């Protein structure tokens, strides 16, 4: 191990291997494995419109399910736009951009851990990060949370410079990066504890402290001015949603807190993340979760006693902040909320292992175990698995092509499309490719006005027509024709008599 530390060339070569391996895992069959469902179809439709119509936006992805509304910043759209334009409006372009940022994140993990720990520790953690199945999974399609790890690691490096150089510029950079992260997803606000801990730990006059606080908040506010401008232009639309989310007696209310369920919910969240990171069964995941949570507490307490700022301590504070958020939003808990902290789990486990192995025999054994874990992680990526319905974008493109050809060949006017194979009956992901093919259907609210309807179904259409589906109601007596079949999907055309 000392040989690696003393030979920078070997460190660089091994890091290069990690980057290459990470790239293979992230880019392999990406067109078939990238998710393309309602979220991505909605986003790509907006980004395409921004490019084609030069339509600048102030608000990003917006979800509305009944009374519940959820919104994010517009940064994701502007980040994906160049890649979508360069790929001639093929969504695989933004997917490759997201995957590329995922590859670069491996190098950022190395740099961040190296700054706080050691080059060897950075190399070990970066290697595990490069092949981790959960990390790989969440950078293989263009979705606003999937670029969070990259910008989160950049933010970590900026906070590191705040701590080590004490230059005022880094406060602005750190605030700006946290503002961009907040644009991508509001759960990233937990990373604010990194800067807060470093700011409190710095010995400076109160005037300087206030100045750095102002610089940080100014940097954070800059990208989020889009929210404020949008709100002012739209009668405080976002403010009303936020107030409804925190006030009682509203179906939009998301905040809940129950002492009897908070601890079980938090533990379930930690074990579910661990199960994904290590592709493990529930019992194994619980054991590993106990190890890394225990290590996090141990190293965090150790740093607190020494009055030192440490990377593990910073990770611990942000985990605490994230868990507080997840306890307030129990209905919205998903594993990707903590994606910017997954490298920290790997770091804690590597640090624990380094305390166990000391002799030369132990070091060789640790090396074998490390390579075994990497091999298991590579296997857990399931490179040759059959894509799920949500991932098979080539099939979506082909279905849209069949519909577009029929529209053009028969000069069909006033048509619409319905997806009977998924919960997204409005067929958003197909609408994107229809728009790209210049055969845009009517708005989803105008099904009764259509004279032709293209239905995508896994079951025979006769079975679906008997169901009370609003999109099909006006076509109950229509003449149907089967246009073709793509994998398990059948494409029907219904013409009103």
Per DSSP, the total helix count is 22
Mean pLDDT: 90
**How many E-type strands?**
6
Tell me the fraction of residues in β-strands, as a range: 5-15%
Structural class: alpha+beta
Question: For the CA atoms, what is the radius of gyration?
Answer: 25 Å
**How are the strands ordered across the major sheet?**
3-4-6-5
Helix content range: 55-70%
Low-confidence stretches: none
Report how far apart the termini are. Answer: 78 Å
Q: Give a quick account of the main beta sheet: strands, pairing sense, barrel closure.
A: 4 strands, mixed
User: Looking at the structure, what is the overall shape?
Assistant: globular
- The SSE order reads HHHHEEHHHHHHHHHHHHHHHEHEHHEE
């Amino acid at each position: 191990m000392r040989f690696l530390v003393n030979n920078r060339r070997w460190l660089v070569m091994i890091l290069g291997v990690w980057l290459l391996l990470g790239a293979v895992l992230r880019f392999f069959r990406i067109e078939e494995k990238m998710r393309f469902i309602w979220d991505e179809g909605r986003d790509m439709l907006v980004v395409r419109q921004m490019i084609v119509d030069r339509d600048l936006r102030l608000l990003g992805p917006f979800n509305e399910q009944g009374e519940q509304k959820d919104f994010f910043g517009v940064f994701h759209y502007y980040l994906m736009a160049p890649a979508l334009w360069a790929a001639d409006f093929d969504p695989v372009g933004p997917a490759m951009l997201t995957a590329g940022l995922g590859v670069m994140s491996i190098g950022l993990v190395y740099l961040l851990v190296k700054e706080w720990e050691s080059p060897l520790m950075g190399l070990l953690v970066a290697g595990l990060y490069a092949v981790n199945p959960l990390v790989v999974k969440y950078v293989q399609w263009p979705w606003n949370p999937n670029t969070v790890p990259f910008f989160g690691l950049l933010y970590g490096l900026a906070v590191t410079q705040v701590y080590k150089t004490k230059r005022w510029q880094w406060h602005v950079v750190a605030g700006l990066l946290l503002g961009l992260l907040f644009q991508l997803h509001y759960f990233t606000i937990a990373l604010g504890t990194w800067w807060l801990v470093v700011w409190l730990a710095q010995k400076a006059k109160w005037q300087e402290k206030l100045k750095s606080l102002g610089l940080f908040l100014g940097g954070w506010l800059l990208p989020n001015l889009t929210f404020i401008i949008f709100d002012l232009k739209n009668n405080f639309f976002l403010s009303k949603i936020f107030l409804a989310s925190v006030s009682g007696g509203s179906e939009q209310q998301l905040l809940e807190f129950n002492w009897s369920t908070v601890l079980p919910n938090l533990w379930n969240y930690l074990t579910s993340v661990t199960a994904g990171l290590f592709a493990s069964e529930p019992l194994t995941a619980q054991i590993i979760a106990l190890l890394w949570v225990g290590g996090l507490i141990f190293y965090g307490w150790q740093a607190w006693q020494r009055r030192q700022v440490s990377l593990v301590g910073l990770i611990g504070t942000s985990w605490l902040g994230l868990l507080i958020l997840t306890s307030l939003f129990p209905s919205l808990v998903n594993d990707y909320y903590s994606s910017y902290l997954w490298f920290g789990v790997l770091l804690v486990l590597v640090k624990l292992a380094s305390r166990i192995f000391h002799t030369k025999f132990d070091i060789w054994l640790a090396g074998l175990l490390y390579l075994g874990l990497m091999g298991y992680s590579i296997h857990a990526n399931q490179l040759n698995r059959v894509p799920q319905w949500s991932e098979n974008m080539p099939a979506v493109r082909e279905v849209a092509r069949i519909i577009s050809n029929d529209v053009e060949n028969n000069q069909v006017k006033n048509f619409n499309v319905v997806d009977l194979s998924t919960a997204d009956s409005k067929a958003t992901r197909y609408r994107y490719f229809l728009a790209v093919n210049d055969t845009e259907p009517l708005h989803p609210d105008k099904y009764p006005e259509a004279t032709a309807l293209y239905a995508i179904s896994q079951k025979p259409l006769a079975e679906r027509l008997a169901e009370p589906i609003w999109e099909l109601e006006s076509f109950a007596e229509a003449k149907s024709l089967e246009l073709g079949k793509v994998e398990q999907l059948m494409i029907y055309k219904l013409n009103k008599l």
